[in-house]
Amino acid sequence: MKIRNHLILIGIMGLAAQGISCQGQKNLVKNKLSLDQTFINQNLEDAEKQINYLATSIKEADMPTTFQKGQYVNWGSSWWCSGFYPGTVLYLYEYSKDPSLLGEAKRKLKYLEKEKNNKGTHDLGFMLYCSFGNALRLTKDSAAYQDVLRIGAASLATRYSTATHTIRSWDGGKNWDGQPWTYPVIIDNMMNLEFLMEVFKMTGDSRFKEIAIQHANTTMVNHYRKDYSSYHVVDYNPKDGSVIAKKTAQGAFDESAWSRGQAWGLYGYTMMFRETGDKKYLEHARHIAQFYLNHPNLPSDLIPYWDMDQNKLTASSKYYSQKDLRDVSTAAVVASVLLELAQYTTGDESQTYITKAEQVLRSLSSKPYKADYKEAGGYILKHSVGSIPHETEVDVPLTYADYYYVEALIRYKRLLDGQPVIKL
Fold it and tell me: pTM of the entire structure?
């Protein structure tokens, strides 16, 4: 009986998700698409050539992160970026059906699998869902990948607190005031909820869904300002869930809108609407999108500065000389999620999201952002910013910029092919 109930539950969730996607597909039929198959195919083929070059330039066990000062930087399987490279390879396999790409992805998954037992990080969604999740979706090999995802989600769930109603982000460390974090939660954590929702549908275990919902709800209340910009870090009291402080770690200052954080939140709440059908998530995503797209400091090519409030930095700031650096990784995330958000909105609003995503893709697919063949070590895009305050990965190619760029291209190709943006 328990198994039967789980199957019914999974079926209901699947129908609900299909209902959202079908409604969105009706919207997209009415939208004008200004990019054509030639543009999308050419950029996917260029990306495949680059990734193939990168694959031949690294060791089998390497998990690519960036290419800096002429050197490959590979942080290992436990680094939060480890799932992006195999995920990018799998998206390119989805496009070209080249079996050598699937083989390359599987080689990396072999080294990544052990992270399913890693309870010391909140980033398992990035690490496991972007990689093993795409592998399962494309190969349907449940025997090879379902247990990895299930165990990984259970590891992530151990970081959830019923007092704060959130998943803890970091263990240890200090904020910029030199004070130790108590129970820090970063906006990036919204990106790990899709992993939990997918494993809920896979297993029928409702605790994964409830954790994702509670985390999203709490983040909506505590991370967002009245203008729908997001703080980077909220530090909680783990005993009663009260907020101790609202800070930044990678932004220009505590009250600034760190650009990639805005993208993470937009992506996370758009996804939560897709997975739950709860319109409060859609409304929140729409507000975030309006804040971002209408920001007076957003450049005309829609590739944002690393912080949306960087213009408020004074000459006395230690970041002043770097204040005008762009962050391509943010733009790539935004391009991808706007294509999905357009699916759940109508009329001029929906068309605006499509048009803005197209503008971002045009910018990313041209100089100075797109690398030439064999340039940048084989990474696809240049000029991303990891963390200026930490002085790490500043104005370099980054593996997650490539991942979300390729994801956006794949999503757009689905539109051109008359398919829903999201492959269920």
Answer: 0.94
